[in-house]
Design goal:
about 350 residues; mainly beta; 12-stranded mixed sheet; about 5% helix; about 40% strand; globular
């Protein structure tokens, strides 16, 4: 009997998923349309939500064009489920001129493929299990992504350029005693950030993997703590150009695990001052200025640690973009700028006076 009930529930879920709808949005659409085809698209990105049409598993496809959101911010009300999130997907859509672009209260959403420009806030959501991926944020004056969260948030494969707010990406709990957990930041590129690139308030399982931070402002990664020490796992990141600290944690009792990160031209690399970790590198990452991939002789090639992401060669690269090149043994591959705790110390091997590799 129990197996019969489980099988019936599985069939019911599969049937409901198979009937998930796709709604279309176009700059030339009308909210009086039904939104079910590109020819009968809505004009507003949140039309299907505000009309009460969405159910878990539905998709909202935002067609190519520029959307001026000055009078029409996107406010989420309807949630998906963990098994069937609601997906908002863009095809070369540019969202601009908003106080905030995406906001509201909802869980289990995916926001992907948008270019968000010239606005105050990109994404500001109260909810859990929100994924923001393959998006570009440019010239944002406040937060690019701000989760007031229940946890399970993911920011991946995004680009953050020339943003001036206090915190570019901020993940925190809804009060001082509740913090987001099980959050993932991976394969993102940050360039020209005036404030803090990533601010995290968390008690457990913040995975910060394979990000590239360039020409940043005050702090690159700032980890705040509350009633309990924070926990974060920091691997395979490039930290370059922090005016203050590349990684700063407000509590020395916090549980921070880290290795195989590359530091260059920061005032301080890691505060409050743990020793360099095995696999850490100190020197110029030598990246392509357009693609941000490591150049042929970069120290970032094949010097990362496997964190479950796909990679080429014998080991992952450090940074957000995996190179097709292979590391060349015996080649001087970085130029170090000595200051702060970039200076050689115990456990650090000097390579031809040009870059430092921590060997354990």
């Amino acid at each position: 009997m129990k197996r019969t009930v489980i099988a019936a529930l599985a069939l019911l879920w599969a049937a409901s998923a198979s009937f998930a709808a796709t709604y279309y949005v176009s700059p030339t659409g009308k909210d009086t349309n039904n939104g079910l085809t590109p020819q009968t698209a809505f004009a507003s990105i949140n039309a299907a939500d505000s009309k009460g049409l969405l159910v878990p598993g539905d998709r909202v496809e935002v067609m190519s064009g520029t959307y001026n959101l000055k009078e029409a911010n996107v406010v989420f009300k309807v949630s998906g489920t963990e098994e069937a999130p609601i997906v908002y997907s863009a095809d070369e859509a540019v969202l601009t001129n908003a106080g905030y672009v995406f906001g509201g209260r909802a869980d289990n959403l995916v926001i992907e493929g948008f270019a968000i420009k010239d606005s105050a806030i990109g994404v500001q959501i109260r909810g859990s299990n929100i994924t923001v991926r393959n998006c570009v944020f440019e010239n944002i004056s406040d937060s690019c992504v701000y989760f007031m969260t229940g946890g399970g948030e993911t920011v991946e494969n995004c680009r953050f350029f020339d943003c001036t707010g206090t915190n570019c990406v901020q993940i925190e709990g809804p009060s001082s005693s509740e913090y987001g957990a099980d959050n993932i930041l991976r394969n993102n590129i940050f360039r020209g950030i005036d404030g803090v690139s990533v601010a995290v308030s968390s008690r457990s399982s913040n995975k910060i993997y394979n990000n590239t931070f360039l020409d940043t402002g005050k702090y690159i990664l700032r980890i705040y703590t509350g009633n309990q020490p924070a926990k974060a796992d920091i691997r395979n990141n490039i930290f370059e150009g922090a005016d203050y600290d590349a990684v700063f944690c407000t509590d020395t009792a916090s549980s921070i695990t880290h290795s195989n990160n590359l530091y260059f031209n920061n005032r301080r690399d890691f505060t409050p001052g743990p020793a360099p970790a095995p696999g850490d590198l100190f020197g110029d990452p030598m990246l392509d200025p357009v693609t941000f991939a490591p150049l042929e002789n970069s120290a970032a090639i094949n010097t990362g640690i496997d964190v479950g992401l796909p990679y080429n060669g014998g080991a992952p690269d450090i940074g957000a973009v995996e190179s097709d090149s292979q590391a060349k043994p015996g080649v001087v591959v970085a130029r170090a700028l000595r200051h702060g705790n970039n200076n050689p110390a115990a456990g650090v091997t000097i390579h031809a006076g040009n870059y430092y590799a921590v060997t354990g």
